[in-house]
């Protein structure tokens, strides 16, 4: 009789144990809590891996690494600056300073090309920390020249002839934040006036008011891919992330802030309706059926932007937090055991392919920017 009771008790224990394991195993990833300390660990792992592999070749031609002032690295520095501000020591700031010193604090070589202005964002943030004017003088001189000698090229992009103006949506991440930052630190309204005029011209040209998304450039307007309009994930990620960088530089409620906030809110409302069940965004935003492979760079920029909105009180937490949580947990699942962020689409201008064992520096930059806001979101 006693033995029967012991066996019965053991049987109940087994059922409880199996049930507990089952509950743990089948709890959806996006239902699990995000821990701020874990966010920092993941950011540190990805940042350290990227610095160690900074001079790798990645996806250009396999023969040489990106120039340190290239737009690819400019996007990396945007995220790395945000991580440096959270890190426990200054070694990341020191690394960024070493880049600036190596480049002699110069922008890249094309005077008007927005991609070659992106590194200026890092220079300005380091100036804000160290108050060393040598860090920003070349950027000021470069932007002043453009404002004093504005390009007369058309806003359309025809066979890559016209890259002196912001004729492709990626440009809205690269150059406008530089001008907004300069306007803020110098008080010179010329930077704002020029930036607003050019940004509006690009938006009037590439923003689809029905879909609330940006075409990559005019070559995609009117095109369909198996019945779907073509809205490139990373291209819209560039815009969405860039909007937050610009709004950071203007007073809440100002005319400039409200202009960008209106675009931002339209995009945010659209983005939460087209996130995939797995948590990422498809490379062609309206064509999940055609592009099922995860893609980290666009997803990271969207995560960054949405978390920023919750943190700044412009997006409702109850509505948008589940989207951020799913996206962040998807992103961290792409990190290899060595700290590399996988599934970053190579350099391109349209939906394509991504692989778990391939990355790019701009993907790391987007991930670190996202992590900086995700950390703040869950630290609260």
From TrEMBL:
User: Can you provide one Gene Ontology molecular function annotated for this UniProt record?
Assistant: hydrolase activity
Record has ATP-binding as a keyword: no
Per the UniProt record, one Pfam family is: Glyco_hydro_88
InterPro entries (alphabetical) = 6-hairpin_glycosidase_sf (IPR008928), 6hp_glycosidase-like_sf (IPR012341), Glyco_hydro_88 (IPR010905), PolySaccharide_Degr_Enz (IPR052043)
Q: Which UniProt keywords apply?
A: Hydrolase
Highest taxon listed in the record's lineage: Bacteria
| Species the sequence originates in | Reichenbachiella agarivorans
Q: What is this protein called?
A: Glycoside hydrolase family 88 protein
């Amino acid at each position: 009789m006693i033995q029967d009771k012991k066996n019965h008790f053991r049987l109940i224990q087994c059922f409880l144990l199996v049930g507990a394991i089952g509950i743990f195993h089948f709890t959806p990833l996006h239902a699990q809590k995000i821990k701020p300390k874990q966010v920092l660990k993941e950011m540190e792992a990805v940042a350290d891996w990227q610095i160690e592999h900074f001079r790798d070749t990645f996806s250009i031609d396999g023969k040489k690494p990106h120039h340190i002032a290239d737009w690819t690295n400019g996007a990396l520095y945007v995220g790395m600056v945000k991580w440096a501000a959270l890190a426990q020591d200054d070694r990341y700031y020191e690394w960024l300073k070493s880049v600036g010193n190596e480049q002699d604090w110069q922008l890249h070589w094309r005077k008007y090309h927005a991609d070659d202005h992106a590194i200026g964002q890092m220079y300005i943030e380091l100036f804000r920390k160290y108050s060393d004017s040598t860090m920003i003088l070349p950027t000021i001189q470069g932007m002043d020249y453009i404002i004093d000698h504005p390009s007369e090229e058309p806003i359309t992009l025809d066979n890559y002839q016209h890259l002196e103006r912001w004729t492709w949506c990626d440009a809205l991440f690269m150059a406008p934040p530089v001008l907004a930052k300069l306007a803020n630190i110098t008080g010179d309204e010329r930077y704002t006036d020029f930036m607003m005029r050019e940004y509006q011209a690009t938006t009037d040209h590439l923003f689809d008011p029905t879909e609330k998304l940006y075409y990559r450039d005019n070559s995609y307007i009117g095109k369909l891919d198996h019945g779907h309009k073509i809205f490139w994930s990373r291209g819209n990620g560039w815009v969405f992330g860039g909007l937050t960088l610009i709004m950071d530089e203007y007073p809440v409620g100002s005319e400039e802030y409200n202009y960008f906030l209106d675009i931002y809110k339209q995009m945010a409302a659209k983005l939460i309706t087209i996130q995939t069940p797995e948590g990422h965004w498809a490379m062609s935003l309206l064509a999940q059926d055609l592009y099922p492979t995860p893609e980290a760079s666009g997803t990271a920029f969207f995560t960054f932007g949405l978390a920023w909105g919750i943190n700044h009180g412009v997006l409702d937490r109850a509505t948008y937090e589940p989207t951020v949580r799913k996206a962040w947990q998807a992103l961290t699942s792409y990190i290899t055991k060595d700290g590399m962020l996988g599934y970053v689409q190579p350099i391109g201008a349209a939906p394509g392919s991504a692989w778990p064992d391939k990355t790019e520096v701009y993907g790391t930059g987007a991930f670190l920017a996202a992590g900086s806001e995700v950390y703040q979101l869950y630290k609260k």
